[in-house]
Structure formats: C-alpha cells, structure tokens
Amino acid sequence: MMQHRIEQTEDRYVIGIKTNMSIQTIQQETGKLARQFMPRRQEVASRVGKHVFSIQNYGTLNIKEMSPQTVFEKWIGVEVSNLDNIPNGMETFVLKAGTYAVFTYKGSIQDFPKSRQYIFQSWLPNSNYQLDNKAHFEELSENYSKDLQNTEEDVWIPIKERS
Prior knowledge:
Elements: E1 4-9, E2 12-22, H1 26-37, E3 52-57, E4 71-80, E5 91-95, E6 98-107, H2 112-123, E7 129-131, E8 136-140, E9 151-161
Antiparallel strand pairs: 1-6, 2-4, 2-5, 3-4, 3-8, 6-9, 7-9, 8-9
C-alpha cells in the first residue's frame, strides 16, 4: 500500500513550539500550532534543510492503550545543527537516534488516518519489528500547508527488532 524504507539516524535537534492535544483534537490543534510557528520559523538560526517537523511525543504512553482522548505532546519545529540560539517562546526537542520505518505518504490530509491504520494494523504486526519508545514524526516540505488535498510527507515510526 505505502512505500517504506528502514533508516538509522543519529540524534536530530529541533527548535519549535509545542502544546498538548489528543487524537480527537489533533487536526484542529495541529493547524493552530502550525499557524503560530510557521510565520516565525525564519527566526531559528543554524537551521538544517528546508523541512519542517510535526512531532508526536507520547512519552511513556503505550500506543496500543491510547484512546481518542489520551493527551500527548505535539510539536511543530525545524531541524537545527545546534541548540545555541532559541527564539523567545520556542523550546528545544531531540529526536532520539535509532531505527525508523519511514513511509512516504501522498494524498489528502483527510485520507491520512487510513494510511496510519495500515502502518499500525497491517505493516507493523506483519514485520520483524515492534514499536520503540521514541517520538513519532512527520517530515514535511516547507510549503506543506498550501494544498491539503495533495500533500506529501515522510512518516517516521520508531521501531526495534521484535524480541
């Protein structure tokens, strides 16, 4: 259904803004967060690339036990080479080194939940991997929000060998 690759990464440093939300509120709250961050992204020094991250930090939550009301931390930010200069009102986050399954999604934002369902209910259970306890994130092009009917993003899911 979706093309994927397995990637090993080092720590990736992010400067951005965050808020708490649930699956139930994720679409509207992510839009609000992006509208706060995107006009200010040029304030971030030492930026790496032109991409933007949308990060879900579930902490110690067990994703299988999450409900639509379960609250988690959501970030919108950009990758940086160091965490030296943090603009007012922004914070830092480290995407931890590890192994990730990277799925390229192309389509409308409304159809994305079907692809997420495929990843967690079909691909993952039939793979040699299990979820790792790290943040999940999407890597988006800088002009991502201009056409929500025709999006393209890389979906990074933290994984480890099944034990």
